Amino acid sequence: xxxxxxxxxxxxxxxxxxxxxxxxxxxxxxxxxxxxxxxxxxxxxxxxxxxxxxxxxxxxxxxxxxxxxxxxxxxxxxxxxxxxxxxxxxxxxxxxxxxxxxxxxxxxxxxxxxxxxxxxxxxxxxxxxxxxxxxxxxxxxxxxxxxxxxxxxxxxxxxxxxxxxxxxxxxxxxxxxxxxxxxxxxxxxxxxxxxxxxxxxxxxxxxxxxxxxxxxxxxxxxx
Amino acid sequence: xxxxxxxxxxxxxxxxxxxxxxxxxxxxxxxxxxxxxxxxxxxxxxxxxxxxxxxxxxxxxxxxxxxxxxxxxxxxxxxxxxxxxxxxxxxxxxxxxxxxxxxxxxxxxxxxxxxxxxxxxxxxxxxxxxxxxxxxxxxxxxxxxxxxxxxxxxxxxxxxxxxxxxxxxxxxxxxxxxxxxxxxxxxxxxxxxxxxxxxxxxxxxxxxxxxxxxxxxxxxxxx
DNA sequence: ACATACTTGACCAAATCGGTCAATACATTT
DNA sequence: AAATGTATTGACCGATTTGGTCAAGTATGT
Lengths: 223, 223
Hints:
Two copies of one chain form a homodimer. By secondary structure, chain A is mainly alpha-helical. Chain A has a domain at about 70-220. Chain A is about 65% helix and about 0% strand. In chain A, helix 2 (about 15-30) packs antiparallel against helix 3 (about 35-45), helix 2 crosses helix 7 and helix 10 runs antiparallel to helix 11. The first copy, chain A, is globular. Chains A and B meet through helix 8, helix 10 and helix 11 of A and helix 8, helix 10 and helix 11 of B. Chain A binds a DNA duplex through helix 4.
């Protein structure tokens, strides 16, 4: 990632991740205008002064986060190295390719637990300070994502009348719903003081839904 | 609804709805601690002083909103009059009963567009001023809802190995996903300055997903 | 020892916060 | 029309928080 924020990017990986995650969490929870730089710095384990040293001001930091997130979301469907045929494209079976993306998403969710809520809220940002910039990034973001997944997919394996796009959409909402479900559970669990989500259980439940979908949407000869 | 806030409840219906909706919107967007009473009052078209006149303080107002929302959510699956057999229970077919609930949800979504985001965010509230009270209300809320829907349902109509609970869950996430999808679209549409969601399109898309599910999860003789 | 880059926390003016209250407007009763 | 009680307002308050600055200090490399 080319950037003018060298001082930030020369930081240790652990420190960078701590700062990014703190930003995702606080901006994601309160939105741009109500998020406090002080709170972010505290959560990242650095001083407020340092944050301003890295990014000059609040706006720059927020937009850096959003671009960073958009970049990662793009990488999710593109090839990791950015050129040539995306790796997951080698597989033409819908559910095999889904398995690939699932693992990537999982790694991302563990690396940046609050990125998804941040990226979900950002488009609704109304602060004039940033909302123009957000829209520009959004346009690039919307075009990619779900569209490319279906390229070169063996759609003939689906039963007649089934739209693979709808199936993909359904499973996407399903995975989001499951994560949210377990977030609620972790909140209600007094033993889990960190409110960490149990991703093993998320995955196994998700797999159940995938299996149900596949069993009934695929032609029998391809099960 | 029995209440100590008579001065509020004696208001005209239009005024009450405006105040409730403003509260849902602002609390839902920023959370309890960062939500500004001033902003809520402005959006509701009243003065800040009036809001304090009705509810004494911020906390009371927030908890009133949450109880109000919980009450409506309960009504969604219960009978409207609160006693006797819920109306929708008369129908034992999964998708017929779903149709019933769908219409109720739709009316609710039009009456209180921001209630769902409010109620989705509230459980994650960390402000010590309110979080204890939220947990208490949550426990009552969690038990109801999705569980009762399946009572007396003709589960034999589903193909073997299909869990109706999972189907219901899937369709719930689906409807939420569709609404969110159209919210994004309305944001990107420069002609739609009010960012109003087109519920006709929401419904028709939702119906497509329901049809797909039903066609493949129901035994053929019940289609 | 020197220079450079990083890090901090006290500090600032400005804005915002929840909440109060005297004044006013309105409606109803006498 | 006078009196009474209720709604409604917006200016106002002290307290807190805000984004941002900066001088002073630490760490690092040469």
